[in-house]
Please model this.
Amino acid sequence: QVRLVESGGGLVQAGDSLRLSCTASERTPYAMGWFRQAPGKVRETVATISWSGRSTYYADSVKGRCTISRDDVKNTMYLQMSSLKPEDTAVYFCAASHTHTYASGTYYLPNTPADFGSWGQGTQVTVSS
Model:
């Protein structure tokens, strides 16, 4: 099973930018994604990206402020975040799917935590006001 390691978290001020990285132990030819979990809340999707990188999904809460990307040569996925808000404070996890997802024979980009089988340990992002 692929191992995922997140990095790039930290303490920033509201309005700042941050780039998270997720490095995989091997090539991951399936969808990947970023998720976050704040204290006392359920884990939620931030963004996901297809195996090709051509399709992306963003949660409404981060749309326009985050960009997900992947570099399969480096086995690394990124999340560029800007205009950070205190409500973005959470542990951020990266995850990889184990399969391509299809509905009625058509590929679709997964966008829920349940669709992903390999997870990193998480990196803390704290945004102060």
Observations:
- The chain has a mean pLDDT of 96.
- The CA atoms of residues 27 and 73 lie 8 Å apart.
- The radius of gyration is 14 Å.
